[in-house]
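For concreteness, we quote verbatim a single protein encoded this way:
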Amino acid sequence: MTEQNVLIEQYESEYIAKVYGFCRMKLGGDSEAADMAQEISLQVIRSIRGGYPVENLGAFVWSVSNHVFCNLLRSRKRSRVVYGADYMPVYGMIPSEDDPEAEWIRREEVVLLRRQLAMMQKNWRQTIILHYFEERSCDDIAGKLGVPVGTVKWWLYDARKAIRKGMNQMNETFGEKSYRPGKLCISCQYTPGADGEPMSCAKSLLNQNILLAAYKKPLTIRELCGELGIAAPYMEDAVAYLVENQLMREAEAEKYQTDFVIMPGANGELGNRIYRENFPAFGKALFAFLEEHRKELTSPAINPAGFTWERLLWVYIQVIVCHAIDHYRIKVCDVACGDRIPYRPNGGRWIALGFDDSINPNTQEWHDYHPSDGPVHRSGGVQGYFHKWSGTSSQTYFDLPEEVFDLCRRFAEGKLDTDALTEEDKFHFGIAIEKKLITRTEQGYRQNYYYANTGACKRLIAIAEDFYSIAKPYFDAAWKLVLDIYLPTMPKHLEWQKGNLFANNLNMFINCSYYDAVKEGLLSEPDDNRYWLSLFLFDREAI
C-alpha cells in the first residue's frame, strides 16, 4: 500500500466523522453541513493524491476545513452574517473587509488557546497567565510561585509545546461523560464520618463522574478534564477534596485513581445465573428445613404475636438465609473487620462501596423481592428490616420517629399499658396506628410486625447456623461465580476488600428464595399492608 493510500485510509477511518461534526458545529443544518463536509473531504483527498506533502494529517485536515469554511463566509459576505468564535451567529459587519479568512482564523485560534489553557495542568497554566497575560518576568514568577527560575522556564517550554500540540489537533472532543454523565450511589460498611462520609462526599454529579472515570486506571487532571468537559481549576479543587476524604488517591505522580470498589448498580445476568444454577434446589432445601422446625417457630416463645405460618415465612426466610450468609462471609470470604478497617479523616471507620447506576442490565422477576435493611441504631436498642416491595419506598420506614419503634418494642414486650399512656406515648402510639404498625381488633390492640426478644433472637440464630451446612455448597458455587465475574474488574490495590463487598451478591439467595416461595404458594398474600408484612424488630444486644 502506497503512502498516499495509507493517508487516505487514515483520513476515512479517523477524520470523516470529525469533519462532519466540525461542519455541524459551524453550520447547524444537516444539509449544509453534509455539503461542506463533502467539499472538505474532496479537497483533502485530491491534495493527498496530487502529492501534497502531509507531515501531520490532523493539522492538514484542520487547515483545509478552515479554508473551506472561510470561503463559505466570503460567499455570504453580502448577507453580513458571520459565525463568530463562540460558534453562534453574529449579525453585523465582517470585522475585516479585506481579509475575512485571516480574521476568522485569528478568532478561532483565540478560542482554541482559551480551551488549551482551561484544560492545562495548574503549574503550566499559572506560568503562562503570569508571563503572557500579566507580562511578568521569569524571575518575578519564580518568586511568586516559590520555585527556581529554571523550573519556570521549563514549565513555559512544556506549556508552549502542549499548546502547539493542542492547536494542531482538529476538533478535539470531550469524553462521553461530558454529555452523558453516569450516576454513582455510595454506601459504606461500619461507621460513617461525622458529616456522613463517604456518602456526603459524592452528592454532586461532578464528584460522582470523577470517581467513575478514574476507577479502572489512574488519570491526570487533564485527562479527567477531557473526559468530563470541565476546566482544570474546577477539576483540581474537586479532586483535592476527594483525595482529602480518601475516596481517591494519588496512584502515580499527578495521576489520581478512585480508592474504593464500584460495582454495577444492578447485575441482572449475575443474578440470573445464581438463580438458574441453584434454584429450585436451594429453595426446596430451605423450605424443607423450615418445615422441620415449624413447631418451634410457631410456638409462643418465638411467635408471641400468633401470626400464621404463611406470614411468618416472610420473616423466617430472611432471618435464616441472611444469618447463614453472614456465617459464610466470616468463614470463607475473608471479610475485613476490626483493625483492618481504616480510621477516616473526619471520624468514623468505614469501607466505601459504589454502585454505578448507569450499568443497569435487565433483571428477572425475582429482583422485585429485594430485602432492605430497615432503621438501624434506633433508640432503645431496636433494629430491624422489612421487605422492599416493588413500587414502594423504604423512605416511609426511615421517616418515622425513633420513638415509634421504641414504643413498638415496649408494646411487644408487654411493657406498655395502653390505658395509661403519657402524652408523648399517645402521640407516638397514634403514629403507630396510622402507619398500621399497631392495629385495633375486637380483642384489642395487636402488633402488626414480628418482634424477637433476646431469647427468641438467639434461638433463631442457632437455627440459622444449623441450616449453614445445607446452604454452604450452594454458596460455594455462587461465590466462585461472583469472583470470576468481578475480581478481574477490581483494581489490585482494593482486593483486600473483596470479601466485604463481593459477598453482598450472595444476598440474591434471599430474593430468589422469596420468589420461589411465592411461586410455590407458601406465603400469605399481602393486602394493603405491604410495608409491614415482613417487618422484623429485635434487640441489637441479642446478637
